[in-house]
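Below: protein 1.
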Amino acid sequence: MTERVSARMPDAVEAELLDLPGEVRVLSALVVACGTSGLAVRVPDVLLPVDRQGREDAYRLD
């Protein structure tokens, strides 16, 4: 799994859909999950308002 997270200002449509006030940024989280063949099987792109989010990541270190 690969995850790319970046912060940016939302466009007008995103700001309206998320009911965001003025200068609130969003996090764009693009996650690519690959199967055993190495091909992508899921690629969700999630938009998160930064004023309403907390994150916790857990990884196995084998």
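Below: protein 2.
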Amino acid sequence: MEVTTDVSPEIINRSDKIDNPYKKSVKTLSKGFIEVLAPPLTETKKHLKELQETQAHLYDKLHSENLILSEVQHSDELHSMIDKIKVYNLKLQHIKKDIRTLHEKSIKLKKRALKLQDLKQAEEEIVNNPPR
């Protein structure tokens, strides 16, 4: 953006020749202002530079980790392992179902065996001790 002025070069040159009574004060105040603010500004600049270097380092590290993760995600070995996990999980579910079924059948058989044993004992008692 350009600033245009209607001041002729003669006026500008004349203003340099005019003795400004505040010129020395302005220079002194400017120098003091710079002396007061320069150290914190240089310190801030130093901290910003360190921060930028740290950010660049973290960015590079994050980028490399993303590349590694991307390679792993697209790995055929990983996909085959996941497929095996699915197959083994289904097999495990079927085995659990079979075990539950066998457990239920064994409980029924135990009950039946106890009944048969009771009936056999009752029959033996009848045979050994006939009613009179």
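The first helix runs from residue 9 to 17.
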